[in-house]
Amino acid sequence: ANPDLQVRLLQEMHKPLFDATDALGIARDDIVLGWLFNTAFTSRAIDVAAESLGLLGEPYDSVSVKIPAEDVPVPPLPPQQFLGALGLNCEAIGAGPDCPGISLLLTGQFVSPRYQKAAHIELPYLAVEGQRQWVPGSFSSEYDPKPQGLEGDTVPFLASLPSVGSPPYPVVIFQHPLTPTDPAKASSANKMALLALANGLGAAGFASVAIDGVLAGGRSILVDNALDGQRQLYPVMSSDLFATRDNIRQTVIDLLQLVRVLKACTAAECGGLEIDPARIYFVGTSLGAVSGALFAAVSPDVRRVVLNAPAAGIGMMLAESPVLLAELSPAICAAGIVSASCCQAQPPVCTPQDLAQDVGFAQFLQIAQWILDPADPANYAKALAARISAGTKRVLVQQATGDLVFPNSASSLLAGLLGLPADGLKSYDPGACATVPEGAHSMLLQNCGSGTVQMQTDIIQFLLAP
Prior knowledge:
The strands form three sheets. The chain has a nine-stranded mixed sheet, with helices on both faces. A three-stranded antiparallel sheet has the order 4-9-10, with no helix packed on it. It has a two-stranded antiparallel ribbon with strand order 3-5. By secondary structure, the protein is α/β, with parallel strands linked by helices. The protein folds into three domains: 1-37, no CATH class; 44-313 and 376-464, 3-Layer(aba) Sandwich (Rossmann fold); 322-365, no CATH class. It starts with a helix and ends with a helix. The longest helix is centred in the middle third of the chain and has 24 residues, at 241-264. The model has no long low-confidence stretch (mean pLDDT 94). It contains 13 helices and 14 strands. α6 (241-264) packs across α7.
C-alpha cells in the first residue's frame, strides 16, 4: 500500500471537518478528537411524498371526488335536513335554530396514496371480526417511502358552504383533534368536529372542509383490549412510536392531497364546492395542529394558519401531560420501562410527578423524541418561520390556560421557535370546562363560555384581516 496515498485520502476525507472548524476559528492544535457523521433528514419523507403527488397513477392518486362519503352516506342538503339525517339539529352544533351561516353541508371522499405499511394487530389489542385485520404501521422507508398496497386509501371529508358570498369561495381546511379510544367520546373527534365551527366560518363567507385523519372517523378500527376486556378504537398515539409518528406524517400527506383535490373541484363535480386557490387557509386543533404545523411548513398554497392547542417537543410534552401519561401508563409499566410505584395500581396510572426521577422513563423519553423527531413541529419550525418571514404565510397560535393534554409549555415553545410577535400567541380561559381533565384542551369545540367565543372570534378576525 502507498502510505502517501492513504494520508492524502484521509486528508480529503476530513477536509470538510477542518474547513468547518477553520470557519469557526478553532485552531487545529486545539482539536483532540473529531469525526464526521450524518444527522437525520427530518422532513425528507414528507418532501418526497409531496413531490410525488399527481405522478403515481389513478389507483393511488386521483383528484376525483365521490359524493357522499361511504361512512356518512347523506346527500348534500341544507343544514337542517343534513343534521336531521344524523339525529342532530342546528342548536346541537351551537348554530342557533337554523344555522344562518351555512347554506349546504355535504360529505365526500377522495383517494390519497398510503405510505404506511400494513402492520399486525398485536397485544394488548385483538382484532375484531368484521373490522379491518391490520392497522397502519411505519412508513415503507425512512427517507424514500413508496406507496403501499394495490391502491391508495379512501379519505372521507365533510364540507360546509357559506350562506354569504358566491363561488369560488375562500376555504378553511380544518383538522380535528386527537381521537379518543372510547367510541362514545370519539364520535365528534373526527371530520364531524368541523360542525362546531362551520356556522361562524360560513357567516364570514368561508367554505370549510375537514378530513378524517389516520385512524379517525371513517378510517377508525375497532379492537378488543385484552388488558381490560373492553372494545375500543385502535389508538392514534400508542406505545408503537414509529406508527404514531407516521400516523401524523400520513395525515400531512392526506392534507396535501386534499389541497390538490380542492383546487381541481368544480361546483358541478363537488356538490357546489368551488374554492379560490389564492385563499386557502388552515385551522387545526390538538393533534390536528401538530399535523397542521408540518402541513403549513411544506405547503405553498396555505396562506394563513391557526394552530390551536398545538405542541412542539413531543417527547417532553408527553412527560408533562397528565392526560397522555395516564393513557400511556399501562403500556410503559407492562413493558418494564418504568419501575415507579404507580405501576402497582390496576390499571397503572402514573403522573408526571411519579416519573420525574425515574431513570427508565428518562431514557424512554430520549428514545421517543428521537423516533418522533420527523413528525415533531419543532423540526419544521425553521421552514415555517422562513415562510412567515417571506410574507407568504401568517400564523396564529392559541392555547387554553392550564391545558392538561398538550401543556402550555409545548405550545409556547412552538410560538417561540416560529418567532411570532407577542400577539401571535394568545391564551384563553377555559372556564368551567377546566373541571374535566381534557376540557381545557378541547375548548375551541365546546361551549366554555366567553373563552370559547373569544377564541373562535379571534380565528375569524385573523383570517379576515387584510
